[in-house]
Every structure is written in structure tokens, then in C-alpha cells.
Amino acid sequence: MKTSHLATGALGAIVLLALPPFLKSYGIYLLSYWLVYVIANMGLNLTVGYAGQKSLGHAAFFGIGAYTVAILMKAGFSFWVGLPAAAGICFAVGLIVGFPALRVQTIYLAFATLGFNTAVWLVMRNEEGFTGGTYGINGIDRPALLGLDLSGNLAYYYFVLGFTVLLAVLMWGLLRSPWGKAFTAVRDNPIRAESLGVHVQAYTLLSFAIGAAYAGIAGALFASLVGFIEPAPFAIGTSFMMYLMLVVGGPGYFLAPLLGSAVGVLLPEWLRFAQAWYLAIFGGLVVMMMLWLPDGLLSLPDRLKARRQAREASAARAAHAASLGDAR
User: Fold this and answer.
1) How far are the Cα atoms of 1, 47, 58, 104, 301 from residue 96, in angstroms, in the given order?
2) Does residue 186 contact residue 200 with C-beta atoms inside 8 Å?
3) Could you list the residue range(s) of the whole structural domain that residue 102 is in?
4) Which of 123, 168, 222, 292 sits at a 20 to 30 Å CA gap from 69?
5) Would residue 178 count as lying in a domain?
6) Is residue 159 assigned to a domain?
7) What is the pLDDT of residues 240-284, one digit of tens each?
8) Can you give the CATH number for the domain in which 209 is found?
9) Per mean pLDDT, which range of 162-171, 200-209, 211-220, 290-299 is the poorest?
């Protein structure tokens, strides 16, 4: 890892650790909300950015994780039972949802996952005896950790931050492992990957399952953060927003969930000074960015490097042509 990357990471860690105590309660809550989406988008980045699958159903896994924790806690179980249950259930459902990816790709796969999201949302909305329907489930408590009370916004923020760092380290290790190389091989050229011995079907399913598990964990943390869940936050609009966050950050870049979620969660809040116009301003900024940086914000250094190399190559060719002219 480059020294500049280490310095940037260290500076970011200092800000995330030192800044929250100086913020108001809503500011701390908003940062926790942002971190929840960072975790969810880590999983989406694995599925879309590294494995190359087109998924528009990520909000469904987010909702399954949230409802799993909420239902189990209402039944008397601990958050620490609900959290692994949410991850495990989402992992299993992700394996099932990944099967369409073995037969259809690109826009057809996107529509298949979109249909899955719609079906899950309808279950959440209509099964009132199980999910509470449109009335939702309230009174979801925040957990305790080693006797520490996490009910306060600041304490819960550091709790979510710890989970974010842990899951980021696990994802970093996964992407640097042979599994990570296999995911990118499947994305870049499935036929060549299979000829090299990569089991394309297995890694396609794993990309959905692991990405879904991350979304399930994020959903569990979200449920305890807000204390009340109902179907609206898990509709297809949220899946579109998650996908947009990833595209803005840059699919296939490790820090894309961090930056993209900041654009999708924090930037609209900072633009509220514009009152009724803030959504239009936000949308306009995103459209302009997509026109100039279609590969996301994190692609900017690579684009600048490519332009510099192109200029250097052009100058070298011009110099070589001039030297040939002088020789004649």
C-alpha cells in the first residue's frame, strides 16, 4: 500500500474518532446512518464492482437483516443472537438469488433481482402478523457490549464504527486472497477464468451470498439505530440509491462504499440550506459527475495518470520524429 494511502487512511481514522464528540446528537446519528450504508455497500461492491454482477435487489437483503433482528428481539432473544441470524439468513437467501446469474446476465439479471426486491417488500408490507405490515415494528432496543450501555448516540456510533472497520478488514483480506482474484477474473472474462480452473458458477453464487450477508449485518445495525422499522426503507428505491452510491464512488474501488455513501447520505443533508431545491441540486451534481467521471469519483487519479502518460507518449513520439528529421 502506498504511503499516501496510509496517510489518508490515518487522517480519516482520526477524524472519525475525534470529530463526533463535538457534534450535536443529530450529527452523530447521521454519521452512524452513513456507516450503516457503508457496510451495506461493501457487500454490493463485492457483487457488482468485483464480481461484475448486476444486482438491483440489495435493499431486500438490507430489510431481511433488519426484520430478522427486530422479530427475534421482540420474541425475547438478544441482539447478539439476531445479528448472526441476520447474516446467516441473508447469506442463504443470497445463494438462492444468485442462481439466476448462472443463466442470465446484464439487464436481465438486474430485472430478476429487481423482482426479488419487490417480492420481499410485498411480504414485509402485507404479512402483518409477522412483520407488522405498514405499522412496522417499534421499540427495537440498542444492544449492550461487555456491560457497556450503547443506547446513547455517541456510544452506538463507535459501536457501528468498530463493526465497519472489522468488516472492511475482512473484505480487504478477502479481496487480496485467491478468492478475490477469482472474483475479478470472473468479472473481466468468465470464459478465460473457467479455462484457468476458476469455478465460475461457485464464485458467482458466493459473490451474491457474501454481499447479501454484509447487507444483512447492515440491516441489523440499522434496526437498532432507528428503533423502528417498516417496509418503506427497503423498497426498490433504496436499491436504486445504493447502486447509485456505488456508481458515484466507483465500482471495483475498495473505498467506493465510503465515498459513495457519503455522497448519497451526507451530501443531501449538507444541501438542505437550499430548502426545496436541494434534491434538484443533488441530482444535477450527480448527473454532471457521471458525464465527466462515468467510472466514479475514485477513477479520477487513474484518468489523470492516463492523460499524463498519453501526453508523455505523444511528446516522445514528436521528439523521435524530430530527431529523424534532423538526421536526414
Assistant:
1) 36, 14, 14, 14, 38
2) yes
3) 25-272
4) 168
5) yes
6) yes
7) 999 989 988 889 899 899 999 998 888 888 777 666 677 777 778
8) 1.10.3470
9) 290-299
